[in-house]
């Protein structure tokens, strides 16, 4: 249990640094879609899954950015994030051979 917590924390720190490094290159929606795809494709363990990919993607930043948008743009961004991330995860899962 403690080992998994330490691995998750270390991975999350690395994922957050990677997200910060990509700021301005890849928008948050892109980061979240890429992270969702990798999670579905790889189904990684605690270090790479909840750790690195959990730190790489960010619901709190998504919520912060969405709160500052006018309502029509916020609704579109929420829909694009939901659809894009679920579709990306599913595509990754399909490419991994877990669905016919």
What this model shows, in words?
By secondary structure, the chain is mostly helical. The chain has one domain. Helices cover 80% and strands 0% of the residues. It has 5 helices and no strands. It has helices at 2-22, 28-42, 47-56, 59-67, 71-95. Helix 2 (28-42) runs antiparallel to helix 3 (47-56). The protein is globular, with a radius of gyration of 14 Å. The mean pLDDT is 93. InterPro entries: FluC. Belongs to the fluoride channel Fluc/FEX (TC 1.A.43) family.
Name its key features:
mainly alpha, 100 residues, 80% helix, globular
Task: Map the helices and strands.
Layout: H1 2-22, H2 28-42, H3 47-56, H4 59-67, H5 71-95
Helix pairs in contact: 1-3, 2-3, 2-5
Q: For the residues shown, what is the average pLDDT?
A: 93
> Structural class per helix/strand content?
mainly alpha
First-last Cα distance: 35 Å
Q: For this entry, what is the oligomeric state of its chains? A: single chain
What is the H/E order?
Answer: HHHHH
User: What count of structural domains?
Assistant: 1
The count of β-strands is 0
Helical stretch count? 5
What Rg is obtained from the alpha carbons, in whole angstroms? Answer: 14 Å
Give the DSSP E fraction (strand runs of 2 or more residues): under 5%
Largest sheet: none
Overall outline: globular
What share of the residues lie within helices? over 70%
Low-pLDDT ranges? none
Transmembrane segments: 45-67, 74-92
Catalytic activity: fluoride(in) = fluoride(out)
Protein name: Fluoride-specific ion channel FluC
Function: Fluoride-specific ion channel. Important for reducing fluoride concentration in the cell, thus reducing its toxicity.
